[in-house]
Amino acid sequence: MTETMTTQPAAATQRQNDGTTIDITDLTCTFTSRRKRTTALTGVSLSVRAGEFVSIVGPSGCGKSTLLKIVAGLVPPSSGEVRLLGRTVTGPQREIGFAFQRAALLEWRGVRANILLQAEMRAMDKRKAAARADQLIELTGLTGFENALPHELSGGMQQRVALCRALLHEPPVLLMDEPFGALDALTREHMNVELHRIWRETGTTVVLVTHSIAEAVYLGQRVVVMTPRPGRIERVYDVDLPAVRDYGATMSSPTFEKLAREIRVLLGASGHHG
Amino acid sequence: MPEVISPAARPAAEPPEPAATTPDDADLPKSRLAQRAGRLLSAAWRPALLLVLLGLGWWAITAAEVFPAYLVPTPGDVANELVTEREMLARHTWVTTYETVVGFLLAAVIGMLAAVLIVYSPTLEKALYPLILFAQVIPKIAIAPILVVWFGFGPMPKVILAVLIAFFPVVVSGVAGLRSTDPELLDLSATMGASRWKTFRKIRFPNALPHLLAGLKVAVTLAVVGAVVGEFVGADEGLGYVLLLASGNLNSSLLFADLILMSALGVVLFILVEAAEALLIPWHASRRQGVPLTTS
């Protein structure tokens, strides 16, 4: 936490706050298989401002991952519209970084080569990409593991590599689909703190889908709560916590506890851990 | 004893400090070599022991004269045949090796191309798969005479038979490998704006390699069968031709010597593909424990 104090704070606010980065209007998504029709999303509208951190929380099967994939252009919506950086989404989007539930690393590449896949696919300037990769490796504490293969890394380190890869091309928008879902509680807390710091230092717009209410509230400026199938937005909470958040202090603050309890009640589930 | 170290094992630009010649540093490359030799030895002693036992059993049977000598030759007779006829046998082994290797390489290339077409085009899949299956189920020995009629006694019909017989496992393993790509990796590739070709080259193909190499290992042993079957039907050289000749003359020593060479050819080619596997996919779970046959 010490380095967070020394770096320039609140880069997020320095970024141009001109309008919205993601505009979702009346989105519906229905999957049809041979046997049945499943409505994954219905009537979803949401705007995300530039530099904002929005968490989406909801029970399993509420379509929150589908929502993220529609924003990325990986799944076409049945009706409604998504605008990303002012343009309507019709196919896979390039101006984003995407982090998946599993790290989705290439088994045969070392840490550095995995991160640089992003640069190779985009035909980025080699020297610039290499410098940026070194910077990210340092930022996420992967120094000394540059050549380690994925199977030699812990789950937390694998996710860090995936995060570096998603950030390599300095995307204006970062979409994260339960990136820490497979990690143990302690590693997850570390990753939350790291992601918070990275977000503030880079000023990237982040949409994070998660199961964890604590994660959603600690990281988000707004928390979107979704209902189960068919998924729609139940409520959007503004998180009234300071921009720079210390993990321990935030967890024990009354504002945090009150909001987390409210969301837990709304989700109607004592079974959904925080 | 620094003079034992080979020049290749020494780094070209060695730091001039005296620390570099401490016994610890000097022993390092040698111990790695010794480790490797030890690993090879521990992998080889069990099959070697089995071979010796089989040889002894063989010798015991011939010594007891259970079967007449013209049916089962002694190990000594066979060894003698291998030595005295070495020039003739070497020539024919080379012919069969050539037919097998060319057939195998063609099967690998054609099989992989077919796998790519099948995976990328549903239309071609429907058109190609029945054809490939048909080519697989038709008895190869039944096509051999036609091939000899068409292409004569040269290596061509043998190569074609080797391709026909080795091609199927390559296609099946190639298709399985290409289809086993994690869908999240393909999504990732899409968000990177990668072209289909780049996605194939950097994600799908390397991901398919472990499957593909398993298929190639099966294919290389089958390619030997294809070449020999081709030689049976019509040839004037090759190990299959020698086998027919020897059986016609009731020369059982030559027959056995020929059989030994055929299986040795298969084993050597299999080991070569395994070596290629170790080079190409050292990262894969199946290769992480070092030499595959090592258990201790």
Automatic annotation (TrEMBL), chain B:
Record's GO cellular component terms: plasma membrane
Region (Disordered): 1-28
Main location: membrane
Key words of the record: Cell membrane, Membrane, Transmembrane, Transmembrane helix, Transport
Domain called ABC transmembrane type-1: residue spans: 93-280
Membrane-topology descriptor: Multi-pass membrane protein
CDD domains referenced in this protein's UniProt entry, alphabetically: TM_PBP2 (cd06261)
Localization terms from the record: Cell membrane
Transmembrane segments: 40-61, 101-120, 127-153, 159-178, 208-234, 254-280
Record GO biological process: transmembrane transport
Family: Belongs to the binding-protein-dependent transport system permease family.
PANTHER family: ABC TRANSPORTER PERMEASE PROTEIN HI_0355-RELATED, ALKANE SULFONATE ABC TRANSPORTER-RELATED, MEMBRANE SUBUNIT
Name of the protein this chain belongs to: ABC transporter permease
Organism for this UniProt entry: Jiangella rhizosphaerae
